[in-house]
Write a structure and sequence with these properties.
The complex is a heterodimer of chains A (239) and B (178).
Chain A: E1 9-14, E2 17-22, H1 27-33, E3 57-60, E4 67-68, E5 79-81, H2 85-101, H3 116-123, E6 140-141, E7 147-150, H4 159-166, E8 173-176, E9 183-186, H5 203-207, E10 213-215, H6 230-238
Chain B: E1 5-11, H1 17-23, H2 29-35, E2 36-40, E3 53-59, E4 62-64, H3 65-76, E5 78-84, H4 86-90, H5 102-112, E6 128-133, E7 143-145, H6 152-163
Parallel strand pairs in B: 1-2, 1-3, 3-5, 5-7
Antiparallel strand pairs in B: 4-6
Classes of the chains: A alpha+beta (239), B alpha/beta (178).
């Protein structure tokens, strides 16, 4: 987002603390600047916001519904609550559904110990999943020379879709289907290895929060995602 | 001296790694033994579950009709039931068969991959449930200890807290797959 030096300043309260924000800033950006933790999964600084995971939902005084902090811009006099019993219960419910919708077997996953979903479950104090597992039968695409797409671990955050379209400009990755049948696809729903548009840059692999995208040859717990290039995304967008 | 707590451990569909991790508390087991008697466990010889256990640790998922019967009996005779480890908490590795049909799983194990005497056993081996499920999906669970296996320090912490009459707070202590 381009920021003018003449941008006006908004004043508001987050969790009872007086804070000042730049115009057009999101509640999430403001909270992070002020050291207030709001859980996120689909958000990546430097990519467009998707607002799909709903973990960053916050309460705003005067609004009868919860709003995603990553998509909501600040307003003068706003009173935001980032953590309450209600929010905690909703966030745990979302995590329950993310864990139960596909087959997340942490102990044997390539990303065990380096996984954003796992990390968030710890941050939210989860010790078990409150809903029955759906145990879907979903494919693993090993057709690419270097990478694997394992739909068992996918949480549909669409980080890969956004990085592929917005940064690599290849737009190989896309989304097919609706609701629980939604799948990440390559080109016109063909095997990844047959894609004409994929440049094999690996950005999707490294930005993926879980073990859904990983490098071939990695075993349980071995896939460490490299994110050191992420800050450059933001710089690039500002130029 | 007050009466010792009655403790039990149960092994359902798991690899026994959680029991090994329990033994990895090493000499600290003496501190546990001062406060509790382990009266039923794969680690002791007694075959009958006690009338009422104060604390029971369950390792493993509920995968067969035998597991289901066992855990229902254990629940009825336990004050505090602890799901110990990822298999008990999430079904974990035993649950990896869940996307497949039971018949396909049996065929794979006993026919396709068997070199000799290919047949699916119908005696002694208990029938599998349609899916392998976490313990709390079939009975109420009081404490969840994720981890594959939970670290010995975690298990010692859980037992120490329980034997002091407190429910352990496991926030930031362990996680799925730990």
């Amino acid at each position: 987002m381009k920021r003018s030096s003449k941008a006006s300043i908004k004043t508001l309260k987050i969790d009872g603390i007086d804070v000042a924000a730049r115009e057009h800033e999101t509640i999430l950006e403001l909270a992070q600047e002020n050291g207030i933790f709001i859980p996120t999964l689909c958000h990546v600084e430097g990519l467009s916001e998707y607002g799909g995971c709903r973990l960053c939902m916050v309460e705003i005084k005067g609004s009868n519904r919860l709003l995603p902090a990553c998509m909501t811009t600040v307003e003068e006099g706003m009173e935001v609550v980032t953590n309450s019993e209600k929010l905690q219960s909703y966030r745990t419910m979302i995590m329950d559904m993310l864990f139960s919708e596909r087959n997340h077997i942490c102990s044997v996953c390539v990303s065990n110990g380096n996984c954003d979903l796992q990390y968030m479950s710890v941050k939210l104090g989860m010790t078990h999943i409150g809903v029955p597992y759906l145990n879907p039968s979903v494919p693993v695409d090993t057709s690419h020379d270097y990478f694997v797409m394992d739909h068992n671990r996918c949480i549909l955050c669409q980080r890969c879709v956004r990085v592929c379209g917005e940064v690599e400009w290849a737009a190989t990755k896309g989304v097919m289907g609706r609701g629980i049948n939604t799948r990440i696809i390559h080109d016109l729903n063909q095997p990844w290895g047959d894609s004409d548009t994929c440049t094999s840059c690996g950005k999707c692999v490294n930005i993926c929060p879980t073990g859904a995208l990983f490098e071939k040859g990695k075993s349980a717990g071995e896939m460490v995602k490299r994110r050191d290039w992420l800050p450059y995304l933001k710089l690039m967008h500002e130029d | 001296m007050s009466k010792k707590a009655i403790m039990a451990t149960v092994w359902l569909d798991g690899c026994s790694g959680c029991h090994m991790s329990f033994l990895d508390i090493d000499e600290r087991i003496l501190q546990i033994a001062e406060k509790a008697d382990l009266v039923y466990s794969p680690l002791v010889d007694v075959k009958e579950f006690p009338e009422m256990a104060d604390v029971t640790l369950v390792e493993g998922a509920v995968s067969s009709e035998d597991d289901l019967k066992k855990i229902q009996k254990v629940r009825a005779h336990t004050k505090i039931l602890v799901s110990l480890g990822d298999c008990a908490v999430t079904a974990n590795v035993p649950g990896m068969r869940n996307p497949f049909k039971v018949q396909d799983v049996l065929d794979r194990a006993y026919i396709e991959n068997a070199d000799l005497n290919q047949h699916i056993p119908i005696k002694v081996i208990p029938p599998l449930l349609k899916t392998s499920v976490p313990v709390h999906q079939v009975v109420d669970v009081d404490v969840f200890v994720p981890g594959c296996p939970p670290h010995a320090d975690t298990i010692f912490f859980v037992l120490s807290e329980l034997l002091e009459g407190r429910i352990p707070d496991l926030t930031n202590v362990t996680r799925f797959g730990a």
